[in-house]
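Data availability (excerpt). The following record was deposited with the supplementary files.
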Amino acid sequence: MFLFFEDAPDAATLKTVPSNRTLLRNSTMSLNCKTNASPEADYHFYFNGKSIGNSTSGVFNVTVLADGVYTCVPVNRVGTGDNATVNVTVVGKLISIDPFLKLLPI
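Predicted structure:
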């Protein structure tokens, strides 16, 4: 006889790659979310409270455009685990090109 236990996800942990959380605008960052759960959790990702996608592996890649808070919420059929967050600061100005080929700050 086999006994299987199901548990809602534990509190999530969230790490970033690169680990530096001050990034150049338009750079790519990988969010790595983990938790213990049975059955395995799906991971829901948010930026400043707005959904940006889901992942079954816990890894989610984003292009960093603005300062803000990234959040990961682990979910399985038993329940929802406590979320994890990271704050990211963006450096570098947005630029546009005027008709005379001069770079102008926005």
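Summary of structural features: Residues 13-105 form a domain with the Immunoglobulin-like fold (CATH 2.60.40.10).
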